[in-house]
Design a protein that fits this description.
- The complex is a heterodimer.
- By secondary structure, chain A is mainly alpha-helical.
- Chain A has 8 helices and no strands.
- By secondary structure, chain B is α+β, with helices and mostly antiparallel strands.
- The relative contact order of chain B is 0.14.
- The chains are: A mainly alpha, B alpha+beta.
- The interface between A and B is large, with 46 and 36 residues.
Chain lengths: ~180, ~190
Amino acid sequence: MTETARAADFTALDGQRFEELYDEHWPWVFAVCRTRLGDHQDALDAAQEVFVRKWRARGRYDPGLATFRTWVSRNAEHLCTDIFRRKAVRPTQEPLTETLPDAPAAGETDAEIARRVTLNSALDALEPQQRQLVLMHEVHGYTWEEIAHTTGLTVAQARSAVGKGLERLRALLKDAGVEFDA
Amino acid sequence: MNTLRRLLQDWFRDRVDAAPAGDPRRTRLCLRFDELSDRAAGTLRLPAARQTHVEECQWCRRAVDHYLAGETTPAGISISLGAQAKWPPELTEALARSLRRAAKLHTTGPRAPAHFDEEGSLTIRWTGIEVEGSVVVSYVWQGAEVPLARGVSRKGVLELKEPLPDLGLRNLDIPARAFRILPEKTA
């Protein structure tokens, strides 16, 4: 069954269906929160809050407008932005490498491992909200308007922050010898 | 094309793969989402083992806190001191409900210093109140302070000067952190 079809049952959403969707999407939501907030415990707490919020709001979910993953991911971004504001963007407490697998993935070459580790360090070097904006745009494909709506920034501010973040990432990766296409 | 965007997308996929399969704090005894409302209202009946777990479990307590955080003061209601007699019924009911939850959710920890007696009067047993003079006693509700009554604090003893509206609460202990005592601002 497709996610949309499964989530369609969601309007009547009983607890069992929600628990199933929670089990399926929790790792994704945790990864979103972890890569934004940096702190492992904060990410656990934030992921929990996202699902509790969505449980309360389940009557407003429209699977015709967004997949369940998109719906919870947007809420995770909102929440992380709120947390940045509440904590005045405190520095990352743990390196982002903390939850990455120690062992190389199957077939992963030495060059790929080195590139992954370097990328972790480069992302660690960004300010938390700048990292959030870069990831929202580059990884998750949010439009500038969606980023502005989610974070409370203007489109110009979001563009500027992402541009500077990418510029810094490119410089750090270049210094580390990581090759990529422009 | 091995672009920076592609590198970042691969990096994030690694993060998802590296994430735990589920919240390591949540166990089979923990609250289910469809139990949160009743737990928050204090009406959830559970077998003894689960009841004990739910009262002590960090995940369960945080889940209820997050659930309650979604509740808001009834819309369109503003509260001012001295106008308690005019509080609309929905506010009085919501406040009483919230105080009951606060009492039920905090069965562990420091003993409650505030108590509604059998006549519905609130007695606050704080000692060592540092504020001297006229004060305002507020209830902390969803992060906002709802002023309940004026009082006078002298040498660490608080005397309430205004009776509260009858909230229908009897013989109920409320945790200290639900209340805040601050000097009354003068115009």
